[in-house]
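Task card 7
Instruction: Convert sequence to structure tokens.
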Amino acid sequence: MTTNSLIMPGAEPFYFPGNKIGCLLIHGFTGTPKEMRWMGKYLNQKGYSVYGVRLAGHATRIEDMMRSKWQDWVLSVEEGIDILKTSCSQVFTLGLSMGGMLSLMAANWFDIKGSVCMSTPYELSQDWRLRFIKPLSLIIPTVAKEKSDIRDEEALKAHLDYPVYPTRAVAELEGLQKEMIRILPEIKKPVLLIHSKADGLSYINSEKIYNRLTCKDKELILIEQSGHVITEDIERMKVFKKAENFIQRLSKS
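Output:
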């Protein structure tokens, strides 16, 4: 029997069963679970149960994302945590870019053990149009993307995401960002931040997040050569190992 899936081929959510320690992997803005799949396989090979969630409005049609609210993305994360909790005693959230923002929010709002945040924005572009983004979205429905900074050529060819930014969703991203900034001092769970110095989104973003966090267990790790999507780029194994060390340390406590 054949099925007509609405999800982009190769961008499906994934689940790899393992032990009682669960890892929820959260992709970025306009991205897909595929950008987290290598990390998921690595963590599963270390024994962990892994779920790569598909955020609402992503990996289908760009029109679906235009209708999504930032609260829908938070709900996707909450549902992912609940799924893992059916078989896991502890859950960690690991997010890339906007997924890192959602991972931080999960650390404040949900029952997780710790949060890994990779290439995470603190503030969006200083573009003056952001102040008028909602009315502009009625006139300009999409915004062109800049060329990807992924340095691994094979990963770049295989990368899956929407080819443009839906303007209405950018307004939702701004709302998510403001809420993340508001709650940063409230977070008490352990947080690991990882960012590349070569990321087009400056690593200063992660430094600002680190400085605003008041939790006792926080760490910022900077890598040197990767682009924004560090889960697929040339230093991905270093990123995976740092994240796994964080999970291993905390899951024993």
